[in-house]
Amino acid sequence: MYNVGDKIVYPMHGAGVIESIEEKEILGNRQNYYVVKIPIGEMRVLIPTENVNNIGIREIISEKDAEKVFKMLGSKSEIDTGNWNKRYRENMDKIKSGNIYEVVEVVNALMQRDKEKGLSTGEKKMLSSAKQILISELVLVKNMDPFEIENMIDGFLNH
Fold this sequence. Notes:
Elements: E1 7-10, E2 14-26, E3 29-38, E4 43-48, E5 58-59, H1 63-72, H2 84-97, H3 100-116, H4 121-142, H5 146-157
Helix pairs in contact: 2-3, 2-4, 3-4, 4-5
């Protein structure tokens, strides 16, 4: 169980801060929800408190882990020349995992592929979403502005 003020990661949406825990009735079902404010786009999401373990909610990474993430950014990855569909599914699974290191792998691979061969529209969207997920967590860990974090990420990726 998390508390108001806790910083958590919601796979596929990013990291945020629990603003409140409220009881709501949705589709005739009353239950408690975490109201989470995600720093990117000022988005708010409701997460049923009962589902937390099933959907992979976790606490944000430590400062030390954030440094590891920055070290991973821009590292060369094996370019998958295989089928677009297979690559897309594998990347989507990594993003859905909620594991920040897997999200970094997706960002690295897609940025590298974009430089070398270009990306399809679907992969461009995926890259944008993976970067936003990464930025949202690093913003909370480093207590920095989203634009500063994005510039840092781009700096690592463009080397």
